[in-house]
Design brief:
The protein is built from eight helices and seven strands. It has about 300 residues and is α/β, with parallel strands linked by helices. It has one domain: NAD(P)-binding Rossmann-like Domain (Rossmann fold), CATH 3.40.50. The structure holds NADP nicotinamide-adenine-dinucleotide phosphate (NAP).
Length: about 300
């Protein structure tokens, strides 16, 4: 189905839009004339990024709305406020993620879920589900979830249904929690795409490779990790480069109707691990996620 809505009439949400790839994508979409809702958790970081995007794009239709993706209550408030302000939503980019490698033990959110799983999987799961009605009335519409190329190094990683909070491990690993949450996003994308068949809303997943991160944002990570990050930078692409892929997947007419796929930074369709394609596990993950977010 070809879109009859011109780009300048399209409304999109980018989460985690005050930094890195999210901010670069907000700018790229704003430059194309779309209405961009930058979803951020921190008012002052959000405000200065919004001002920067408006100034650089010359597009004043760039809004800032606040939500903390680790808090289900905050997501519910955001969705309510969004639906009061906007009657349509054509593109949802679930970009925000927590990869705080300084975490030494599982931190539980106000809803009792481990912080990384809550932010990177349950948050986007809840937000997407609460926005499905408005996406379905704005077709053709697209949902983009964000995974990681690092998952390639974890081909046997499966959803740990008996330890979603990562409390049973000998030693908590934020890196393990991060890849576990990203695997969940890949599996969520596949189930979502299936459930959305025939609705005019598509769901795809982006496999992000090493992308430069602002070192100043890393906070209290040990020196050794800082050195590793600096080393990683040498092999990283820029957030602006990566935002080109996000923008392409969000807007390219030739991708209309394409759903349930994972794409790399070159826009190529790429396969995901065997455990991620386990349909029984996908269904189970959906059910557990719906239970944990109060959707059933
Ligand atoms: N960079 C890489 O090498 C790499 C590799 C694989 C995948 N990815 C994925 O690419 C995406 C973007 O990463 P990036 O490199 O652009 O990272 P980044 O520069 O650190 O940006 C992350 C964004 O997520 C936001 N965020 C974090 N926790 C949040 C929460 N609880 N609620 C709302 N927003 C929250 C951050 O906001 P604050 O400013 O408030 O923290 C920030 O805007 C992520 O999904 C990441 O997992 C990145």
């Amino acid at each position: 189905m070809q879109s009859s809505t011109s780009l300048s009439e399209k409304i999109c949400i980018v989460t985690g839009a005050n930094a890195g790839i999210g901010k670069a994508t907000a700018l790229s979409l704003a430059r194309m004339g779309l209405t961009v809702v930058m979803v951020c958790r921190d008012p002052s970081r959000g405000k200065s990024s919004q001002e920067e995007v408006i100034a650089k794009s010359g597009n004043s239709a760039v809004d800032l709305m606040l939500t903390d993706l680790s808090s289900q209550q905050s997501i519910r408030h955001f969705v309510e406020a969004f639906k009061v302000k906007y009657q349509r939503l054509h593109i949802l980019i679930n970009n925000a993620a927590n990869f705080d490698l300084s975490l030494k033990e599982p931190t539980l959110t106000e809803e009792g879920v481990e912080l990384i799983f809550a932010t990177n999987h349950l948050g986007p799961f809840l937000m997407t589900n609460l926005l499905l009605d408005i996406l379905k009335t704005s077709t053709p519409a697209r949902i983009l979830n964000v995974a990681s190329k690092g998952l390639v190094a974890h081909p046997r990683l499966a959803i740990e249904f008996d330890d979603l909070n990562q409390t049973k491990r000998k030693r908590y690993s934020p890196s393990h929690a991060y890849y576990h949450s990203k695997l969940a996003q890949v599996m969520f994308t596949y189930t979502l795409a299936q459930k959305l068949q025939g609705t005019g809303v598509t769901a795809n997943c982006i496999r992000v490779p090493a992308v430069a991160v602002d070192i100043g944002r890393l906070g209290n990570v040990p020196r050794i990790l800082l050195s590793l990050y600096r080393l990683k930078m040498r092999f990283s692409i820029t957030p602006e480069d990566m935002s080109k892929t996000y923008t392409y997947l969000a807007t390219a007419p030739e991708l209309e109707g394409i759903s349930g796929k994972q794409f790399d930074e070159h826009h190529n369709e790429v396969d995901s691990s065997k455990p991620s394609r386990d349909e029984v596990a996908q269904q189970r993950l959906w059910q557990v996620s719906a239970q944990l977010t109060g959707l059933m």
